[in-house]
Design goal:
The chain is an alpha/beta fold. It folds into two domains: 3-196, Alpha-Beta Complex (2-enoyl-CoA Hydratase, Chain A, domain 1), CATH 3.90.226.10; 199-246, Orthogonal Bundle (Lyase 2-enoyl-coa Hydratase, Chain  A, domain 2). 44% of the residues lie in helices and 17% in strands. The protein is built from eleven helices and ten strands. The longest helix is centred in the middle third of the chain and has 20 residues, at 140-159. Bound molecules: hexanoyl-coenzyme A. The site of hexanoyl-coenzyme A has 19 residues, from helix 2 and strand 6.
């Protein structure tokens, strides 16, 4: 297996990329295993947040160059190479990328498919595809531009340079930077916090934020208001508001 799945805390799942000999380069096998694992966890009401991580040395050093190198245009087009990664964006449970070391090319793009990005001080982000004679192919030109703006995205994508964790945080790619040895614990803590909320509310919040990338402001605000109304049909809304009034902790049932 090129990924492992653990349950390090209540309602939290941890998926770890595990191809150390290739710095977690993403091949077809990894794509299948990772998207299958994430979809399975997403179907479980027992999982409220999923952490995705790699090793200390590499989150992922890109798509597997050796696997792609000899492919022709016809093959890439016929197989719609990389389209399988879209499955990850259909995961409704909050996804947290915990990045240490290299997050390059497809590695950076994979991290950007997650909802929250935590970085160790060792993290290095980049889209070096231009140095291979190609361009990002797993959403980098779109998600990086939306995340950090045209100026920085063009800088990274056209020069292929890498960006340190502090720069990634300054330009808004990363939510938090933590000392290397704290990354895993911090990611699990953030995941546990999210997983302690109403799952239906957390999934709805994720859906609403993601809608902002796909719609006009007026449509997005209307979508938000409608799903906000819909949450009043949940038990968790009744419990959350009752708990506030009664000055106690809510006991969410995730429905
Ligand atoms: C396949 C890879 C790989 C990759 C590293 N390896 N990255 N194999 N695909 N993307 C392999 C190396 O070949 C090597 O295997 C082993 O991992 C260790 O890597 P080293 O290069 O020896 O390590 P180091 O000197 O520490 O350098 C680390 C690195 C470098 C700076 C991250 O490996 C590197 O530049 N990798 C490629 C990064 C990249 O260009 N990524 C974008 C890929 S394209 P052996 O067997 O030799 O020991 C992409 C998007 C696709 O992601 C979009 C369309 C193309």
């Amino acid at each position: 297996m090129t990924v492992t799945v653990e349950r390090p805390a209540s309602r939290v799942a941890l998926i770890t990329l595990n191809r150390p000999q290739a710095l977690n380069a993403l091949n077809l096998e990894t794509m299948r295993e990772l998207t299958t694992a994430a979809a399975e966890l997403d179907r479980s009401a027992e999982v409220g947040a999923i952490v995705l991580t790699g090793s200390d040395r590499a989150f992922a050093a890109g798509a597997d160059i050796k696997e792609m190198a000899s492919r022709t245009f016809s093959e890439m087009h016929a197989e719609d190479w990389f389209a399988g990664w879209d499955a990850l964006t259909r995961v409704r449970t909050p996804l947290i990328a915990a990045v240490a070391g290299h997050a390059l090319g497809g590695g950076c793009e994979l991290a950007m498919m997650c909802d929250l990005l935590l970085a160790a001080e060792s993290a290095r982000f980049g889209q070096p595809e231009i140095t291979l004679g190609v361009i990002p192919g797993m959403g980098g030109s779109q998600r990086l531009t939306r995340a950090i703006g045209k100026a920085k995205a063009m800088d990274l994508i056209l020069t292929g340079r890498t960006m340190r964790a502090d720069e990634a945080e300054r330009c808004g790619l990363v939510s938090r930077v933590v000392p290397n040895e704290q990354l895993r614990a911090e990611a699990i803590e953030v995941a546990a916090k999210i997983a302690s909320m109403s799952l239906v509310a957390a999934r709805t919040a994720k859906e609403a934020v993601n809608r902002s990338f796909e719609s006009s402001l007026a449509e997005g605000v209307l979508f938000e208001r409608r799903v906000f109304h819909a949450l009043f049909a949940t038990e968790d809304q009744k419990e959350g508001m009752a708990a506030f009034t009664e000055k106690r902790k809510p006991d969410f049932r995730h429905c």
